[in-house]
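A reminder from the course coordinator: this example appears on the midterm review sheet, so study it carefully.

Given structure:
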């Protein structure tokens, strides 16, 4: 998979792409991540990538020209499955969306900023608008980081225990059951006996029941 991220603040993507699992995935060539600084595509002598909104609205708007230039250049080099724009008014990002993205070959992510982006970018250059939650971030880089992280870990070979991603919360519309490790008794705080019983079928049943109970309590919407 290849991810091309377009941003005015490349440093904000550093932690998402240069550490831990994503870093290892890049080293193993399971994913290529290219970060493009939008300012490099500005023809303006001040390297501006935004301008005042027509109609007197307060706040700056990302201009179409540098965005079109970088997307056009990338699209000349390869076909893209999706050109994503991160925005709080986009479709809500879910595990199923990450599952789908992890099967794609090439994805562009444009990180939103300022008051928004010229609507013509959304109308003509973007194929998918994604929100990572019902709150407003200062920029789309954190949202892009969420998409990158949750997608890359699903690419086969990225997580060493291939099955572990399958048991994540949300994969089967259930939250994950609680987990414990040693010591079995910490100052009287005990691990449930069943987990120490060695009886695999009973343990699996217990885990499933815990997951169902937790989901019913915290996220009944997932069970509908
Ligand atoms: N940009 C600002 N807030 C955002 C959100 N919640 N999701 C995606 N992009 C954003």
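Designed residues:
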């Amino acid at each position: 998979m290849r991810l091309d991220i377009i941003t005015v603040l490349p440093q904000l993507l550093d932690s998402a792409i240069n550490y831990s699992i994503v870093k290892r995935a890049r080293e193993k060539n399971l994913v290529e991540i290219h970060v493009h600084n939008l300012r490099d595509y500005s023809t303006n002598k001040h390297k501006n990538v935004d301008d005042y909104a027509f109609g007197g609205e307060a706040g700056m708007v990302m201009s179409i020209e540098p965005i079109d230039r970088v997307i056009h250049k990338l699209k000349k080099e390869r076909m893209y499955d999706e050109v994503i724009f991160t925005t709080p008014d986009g479709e809500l990002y879910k595990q199923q969306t990450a599952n789908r993205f992890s099967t794609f070959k090439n994805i562009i992510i444009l990180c939103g900023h300022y008051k928004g982006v010229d609507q013509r970018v959304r109308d003509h250059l973007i194929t998918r608008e994604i929100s990572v939650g019902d709150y407003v971030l200062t920029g789309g880089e954190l949202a892009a980081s969420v998409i990158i992280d949750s997608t890359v870990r699903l690419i086969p070979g990225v997580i060493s225990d291939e099955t572990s991603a399958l048991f994540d919360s949300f994969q089967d519309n259930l939250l994950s059951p609680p987990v414990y490790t040693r010591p079995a008794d910490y100052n009287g705080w005990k691990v449930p006996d069943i987990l120490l019983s060695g009886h695999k079928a009973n343990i699996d049943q217990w885990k499933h029941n815990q997951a169902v109970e937790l989901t019913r309590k915290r996220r009944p919407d997932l069970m509908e």
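The CA atoms of residues 24 and 158 lie 8 Å apart. The domain at 167-223 is CATH 1.10.1270.20 (Trp Operon Repressor; Chain A).
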